[in-house]
Specification:
Layout lengths: L2 E7 L19 E12 L2 E7 L6 E7 L4 H4 E3 L6 E7 L5 E8 L2 H26 L37 E4 L2 E4 L1
Antiparallel strand pairs: 1-2, 1-7, 2-3, 3-4, 5-6, 6-7, 8-9
Amino acid sequence: RVLKVAVYKIPPRSTSGGYKCGEWLQSDKIWSGRLRVVSCKERCEIRLEDPNSGDLFAACFVPRGQRETSVEPVLDSSRYFVLKIEDGAGKHAFIGLGFAERNEAFDFNVALSDHEKYVRREHDKETGESSADGIDIHPAVNHRLKEGETIPINVKPKPTSSGTGMRFGGFFFLK
């Protein structure tokens, strides 16, 4: 699914608590286009691309276990985030990222969480540890009865309080 986003020039963080998108003015919008989350093995990349040409505007790399330093939700909205963009030469910048709809921002969060879970499971497989979330992943097991196979069920008759019925082979019939 392709998500449409807007990118904002943001002021430096004003408090140690986090960013607030309410401080970004509409005039601080610098780009709009599509967002793709690309996950390959342990690498996760958030790509901001031109919707027509596919040209890359910016990319945010999310190193394993460092999502909170690369993608930070803002304090005052569920639709906005701050991305840490790096140039590969050690320089970085922070940009604001906004989604038009809350469900798109939710899908973005889910994609990042799914990548983290995948990486954790793969790491646990390599080290032989059990999954941190307690879910054991195994191939599906077929529990269907095979042709001709039966399951014996023993049913004890229930005692009756009234004498108006008749018992027959474990079944009780009313008169």
